[in-house]
Amino acid sequence: MTRPMLTQREAAAACGVSRTTIRRRREAGDLPGAVQDPARGWLIPVPDLLTAGFRLNAPAGPDAPAADSSAEHGGDHRQEHGGDQGDVAGLRAELDQLRHEHALAVAKAEHGRRLAELEAGHLREQLSVRAEQLAAQAAHIADLQQTVRALMPAPERPELGPAVPGQTQSGRQSGVERQESEAGGEGQPRWWRRG
User: For 167, which DSSP code?
Assistant: First the structure.
């Protein structure tokens, strides 16, 4: 025995919901027996609709013409409004679903924003600590450089200039040369003093 199958449009009309609702439920996997027919599009088994929680009204057959007015349909004014009320209920349910999805999306975005703020605060704190570490290292390097300069030997001092103004360095005589010239200029230095 084959199961009765409805198109998405027929299923929406039979359940009093929009085609979008039927499509979403099919895409979510709530209608596992749905199959795609090349001629009619998606076909949904009636038991799947019932299992998914839909209540079925008496669906019009697939060959029934679309109702344009209550006179053509042969129904009374109350049946037409009953169909409208089903559409309104379906639209309200879909609107409620969209509002719920929107609220979830807003909550997720807010959560992401809070996480981003926390991460930014953490990164700022790490940057501040790193800057303090670099400043301490720079001060330590400056101290080490000053210590190295203090341990280095003093630079050579230039020889002192002349003792007498106007006298050149070559004109000055050392104590030994002066003794030699006083002793007669023998050319041999005397290492002792006369008594």
Answer: -
Nearest to 7 by CA among 33, 41, 46: 41
CA torsion sign for 25, 27, 31, 36 is: positive
Q: What's the rounded mean pLDDT across residues 2-11?
A: 84
User: How are beta strands 5-7 and 35-37 bridged, if at all?
Assistant: unpaired
**Cα–Cα distance, 187 to 125 (Å, whole number):** 83
Name 42's bridge partners.
36
Alpha helices by DSSP H, listed for the chain, are: 8-15, 19-27, 46-51, 70-73, 77-151, 175-182
Rounded Cα distance between 185 and 187, Å, is: 5
Higher pLDDT, 128 or 165: 128
Residue 105: inside a domain, yes or no? yes
Q: Which of 51, 68, 49 is nearest to 59 (CA)?
A: 49
- Looking at the structure of the chain, the number of domains it has is 2
First to last CA, the chain: 151
Q: How many CB atoms lie within 10 A of CB 47?
A: 12
Give the whole-angstrom CA distance, residue 69 versus residue 78: 12
Domain around 132: 91-147
- In this prediction the pTM is 0.31
CATH number at residue 33: 1.10.1660
